[in-house]
Amino acid sequence: MTPTLVQSHSPRAGAAPRVDLCARARDWAEIQERMLVPLYEAVYERLEVGDGTRLLGLGCGSGLALLMAASRGAAVTGVDPSQPERLALARERLLPEATGDARARGATRLVEGGPADAADPDLPAYNLITAFQPIGCMAGDSEGLSGLLEAAAPLAGHGTPVVLAGWGPPERCATSSVLRVATKLAEPLRSTGSWRPALRDDLEVVAHRAGLKPDGSGRVACPFGYADVESAARGLLSTGLFDAAARATDQVQVDKELTEALHPHRRRDGTVWMPNVFRYLIARTP
């Protein structure tokens, strides 16, 4: 089984771990991404996504959320400026050449870049914008999102819903105890790339910073379930939340402590189960 991270024989603290980005993207798409399906479903149901929806997905990654919207009849555009490996998997899932779905031709676009790269004056304005990549779980993860939201807003009509997502309260997220390993190991470098507990107003702060007006929120149970401890470790490593810890120590240490942290969540049949609550905010464009 191909590991997501490959560490040199003589690791040194502060050195960037060598990452097999294609393997990591595949682990995300095959193991981890599906954990957020209840979140996507709850949002789409509340906003009545379907025929007539023109959705712009920011940080669309490997495209599962877009695929679910498209299955409801929505025309979807996904942009991702920083994860070409995940975007390649989204193309496999969504583009007509891959699916053979003639109905989808022209209704699905995937763009390696930012919102401005998705602008098309010949198409109607977007009437839904989503940013499903959870924020408020990594130090410094919200700064760049505000800029993306500001750039996306002009592509949508007045009052268009914009959906932001994040982790719920740490006491209601069993995975928090596992993710604390990343923070503990990354502390020597005081890195801005490691996990931190979500704060109550994380989503509202980002919305206000981007000039959006909050207009409702919700919480959704998103349990993380895995076939075994190895699968759980691969899935969690694919999030990138442990990269700062690997830079501060080494991948062997991260793997060891991550595996130990997962064992309390292992059930008698070998599966791993961690109940979690995620939160979403619906804001409106000016």
UniProtKB/TrEMBL annotation:
GO molecular function per UniProt: methyltransferase activity
Q: EC? A: 2.1.-.-
Top-rank taxon of the source lineage equals Bacteria
Q: Which SUPFAM superfamilies match?
A: S-adenosyl-L-methionine-dependent methyltransferases (SSF53335)
Q: Which GO terms describe its biological process?
A: methylation
Q: Which UniProt keywords apply?
A: Methyltransferase, Transferase
Q: What protein name applies here?
A: Class I SAM-dependent methyltransferase
